[in-house]
């Protein structure tokens, strides 16, 4: 059964993507951003923010319409322009990683600002399942993973947990306060407000499910 | 065909609910909050913030575990305690409105902070469809409505629009940049990144759909 540890400030991945949402403010994603500068890909909307924080990414990806002219000139050697209107900047960055055979990825800055982008970016984790083996999204409020097989998650007692089904699929859990036994969720709100009872919990599914584990407040 | 105007600072409703997310900062929801104090219901987690802004709601609803002791004592006459663990505070407030025969509702402060709550609160708009005739959710970034019949939306050219299907259902649109003709969305990201072409657009559906219209930045 695949095990998903909780990220730590020392967590690393082959590549870290910084997306266009809120720039990280929680100490955990901030530390991961700082500690992974040499393997950092930045969606173009986030590059101005990142450069203001004196962090230079390895690559900037997007249609570059939101990158200042000054930054476009200064960083032209690390910019990969992808003008496709049918995918968002996060997906462009993930596809770029896939084409470079990246198999582990941390995504930061993917939520906040427009809620339609937040929902799309979280739901897209399911779309990325067949593309890259290990993807963890870390926000200022929690950790998201998409799964499609039975999985075990590191946790702590009373950690807030939410499950989001993309399609109704039978779910069986252990170590959650509101356990599920071959039950399905038809709606996105039905799997929210759960809670871990122990130092790990398990989820059995055979279709796509997105798992949220809350971060402790900073 | 039901028409959904864009809210204005003077928009009003029989009741306005302030939920537990980010306290409004965009001028539009801020003005609506200010202008509707005499018909304001507050979810308990938001009451401390609201009282700091010198606004006293008509009623405070929730399990009250997040309301300071001082506020619990001072405002005990307007507090309705509902300890049900199976519904969130926003739903408790909406059910309270339904039991009081409220037929028009504006929801503020329902997004921001934990993303699982943001997703649940937005998706719950579909759950509220049979309960209350007119509900509009206004955030710092946009306006959300749930529909289940053909509808027309006030808009402006180039306004960003996203459509979220709870279940795959045929959608037909007019006046959108990426038009749909009896097409379905299987995933929550598929209806994002659309754009209005005119001062209104129409959406034909026969099942639940959630519509997002972006606000102009303040």
From TrEMBL, chains A, B:
Residues 142-212 form the Thiamin pyrophosphokinase-like substrate-binding domain. InterPro entries: Thi_PPkinase (IPR006282), Thi_PPkinase-like_C (IPR049442), TPK (IPR053149), TPK_catalytic (IPR007371), TPK_catalytic_sf (IPR036759). It comes from the Bacteria. Its EC number is 2.7.6.2. GO terms for molecular function: ATP binding; kinase activity; thiamine diphosphokinase activity. GO terms for biological process: thiamine diphosphate biosynthetic process; thiamine metabolic process. Keywords: ATP-binding, Kinase, Nucleotide-binding, Transferase. It is an enzyme of class 2 (transferase). CDD domains: TPK (cd07995). Transmembrane segments: none annotated. Residues 34-128 form the Thiamin pyrophosphokinase catalytic domain. PANTHER family: THIAMINE PYROPHOSPHOKINASE. This is Thiamine diphosphokinase. It comes from Commensalibacter intestini.
